[in-house]
Amino acid sequence: MVNAGDMNGSGNLMDFLDEPFPDVGTYEDFHTIDWLREKSRDTDRHRKITSKSKESIWEFIKSLLDAWSGWVVMLLIGLLAGTLAGVIDLAVDWMTDLKEGVCLSAFWYSHEQCCWTSNETTFDDRDKCPQWQKWSELLVSQSEGASAYILNYFLYIMWALCFAFLAVSLVRVFAPYACGSGIPEIKTILSGFIIRGYLGKWTLLIKTVTLVLVVSSGLSLGKEGPLVHVACCCGNFFSSLFSKYSKNEGKRREVLSAAAAAGVSVAFGAPIGGVLFSLEEVSYYFPLKTLWRSFFAALVAAFTLRSINPFGNSRLVLFYVEYHTPWYMAELFPFILLGVFGGLWGTLFIRCNIAWCRRRKTTRLGKYPVLEVIVITAITAIIAYPNPYTRRSTSELISELFNDCGALESSQLCDYINDPNMTRPVDDIPDRPAGSGVYTAMWQLALALVFKIVITIFTFGMKIPSGLFIPSMAVGAMAGRMVGIGVEQLAYHHHDWIIFRNWCRPGADCVTPGLYAMVGAAACLGGVTRMTVSLVVIMFELTGGLEYIVPLMAAAVTSKWVADAFGKEGIYEAHIHLNGYPFLDVKDEFTHRTLATDVMRPRRGEAPLSVLTQDSMTVEDVETLIKETDYNGFPVVVSKDSERLIGFAQRRELILAIKNARQRQDGVVSNSIVYFTEDPPELPPNSPHPLKLRRILNLSPFTVTDHTPMETVVDIFRKLGLRQCLVTRSGRLLGIITKKDVLRHMAQMANQDPESIMFN
């Protein structure tokens, strides 16, 4: 036997793994993190810093810097996210107007900015000024007539195709992850999944540039969802500068949760709504500390955007409105009807869009992403141009639909027949009969509504950045405005009806059609995303009207109830399942009476579980086991006969440990014994040096007994964020349950295809 002296002499060599080595604790791409392990590592790191801070002033300063690093990261995220959002808003404004004309005095001015600077603009013709020329005026010196219209029409389509082609080409060549909304993947990443490159610097750059291009092209999509992805890319970039976050995937996700809040804050100008959106919709683990930091990041982002003032109206969004008329109880009925419409539209959209995306994935259509984008852009531009409500940008459309008709409005929607004897103040214009412009606007809105409903189904999910918030709000706002005008005219012509008699007297300003547009927008957005609390807060932050919370709540809750009656999944969860990501939704209920033994592997008839023994396997045995299997880790037992559980070793860390040992430790060869115990095993004389791997062993893996109900196991996986769980009976190892096994079992119990869960 090797004597004690020899053993002691080689102690330093055998224990080299007591010092951390490169890449330990990291995860492979498309794998799930172990939340408990990350939490434990952060606790150890914090304990070490706290104990060292008492040794010297320098260590104390370092501990203070570590404590403040989280707030510094939030400040940087807020500043960059707000700046990027401001730049995107300004660029979109200019490029959208570029499709129709150009400013001669300064080509980088948008239509509105161009006419602001002009001294020849009149109030009645505030959209017309000599400095701004349509393409037909510039090229053929004609502003009216068929030839001018056809030329403008043709150039509108060409600009749209040019922007869309450039966007899809940039995404395809430089950053394939920059496509889509980004929220389904952000939700999956925040639940603990690793998608390397999804939040990288190239993705940030390309998504920012292409977002401007696709929104300017006039496609039926918005920038709000992708702005969450952009903000999370900022969060990932800044967290990589601090070792506290770069070396701990769990801590990094706390930063990304706060970044998502900053993204919504600048998208809608709603800091509180952003925090609630992150909490309700995207975050998986949201401790109180993250709530405060999210609030700070959202505040800084909103302040930065306000400083840039991209819309020139001292507001954070284009469609900020204020109403001056209260709502009445009888109006709750049309508000609830709009909620029903929102729920039905949400269900229709999710089913049709998922069917189309599935077809894209499984047929030849998916092989031609550039052609698909070009065709959809061409169809959108050709149909959109003749209708003034689809020609303009969707944000401008929503802004016009939300607006209350004041005395100074020139929109067709405000073409009412005025009473020449009216002497009321500007803010309190009574209900009036609709003029010809309102009726023209109604049928144009009806056509625009049908067009938006259909084209959005095919647009969302293409290989370009595409948000869903704005198109959904536009659909609801159009439906709401039409309902609002209908109720308004009904109240005007039939004010003696019992439902109007108490609150709508002749000459009173009773119905605000813009409020109906806002309620409809909230209902449709709620029907598609299934948001409730954060949606209502975002909407009242948009409008600045606290008294309209009840109508918004009624519509949001109704749309969720109606949509949930046809299926519990929102659009983001549906896309997560379509892509096969391992996302264990907190909202899903598991009520089946199965046991851990029904789900664990190995099942009957399968090969026995691959395990490591604590002190009887050689380096070659371990390497062979790793080579012949693709498991993410291996349970460690006393021996293959007793199968009493000792701990769990991760595959990646075994590979790294053996590789480092061969490089740094003399005497480690293929037939060296690997041991996971504190003391080395007794070995024959002249045996090669054994290899101690106790440091990489998880001595407290989570275990359940074989008779644990699966309902409990699912809850454990959800609430603790487990990667795997070992099944034992009286201390003996029986099997293993992974997150993938849980998801496949849940899919099987719901009569879905369990093979749709593709990743670990």
Automatic annotation (TrEMBL):
Signal peptide: none annotated. GO terms for cellular component: early endosome; endosome membrane; Golgi apparatus; plasma membrane; synaptic vesicle. CDD domains: CBS_pair_voltage-gated_CLC_euk_bac (cd04591), ClC_3_like (cd03684). Coiled coil: none annotated. It is found in: Endosome membrane; Membrane. It is a multi-pass membrane protein. Keywords: Antiport, ATP-binding, CBS domain, Chloride, Endosome, Ion transport, Membrane, Nucleotide-binding, Repeat, Transmembrane, Transmembrane helix, Transport. Its main location: membrane. Residues 600-664, 697-755 form the CBS domain. The chain crosses the membrane at residues 68-92, 153-175, 195-215, 227-243, 255-279, 332-356, 368-385, 441-461, 468-487, 515-540. One of its GO terms (molecular function) is ATP binding. It comes from the Eukaryota. Belongs to the chloride channel (TC 2.A.49) family. This is Chloride channel protein. It comes from Trogon melanurus (Black-tailed trogon). The gene is Clcn4.
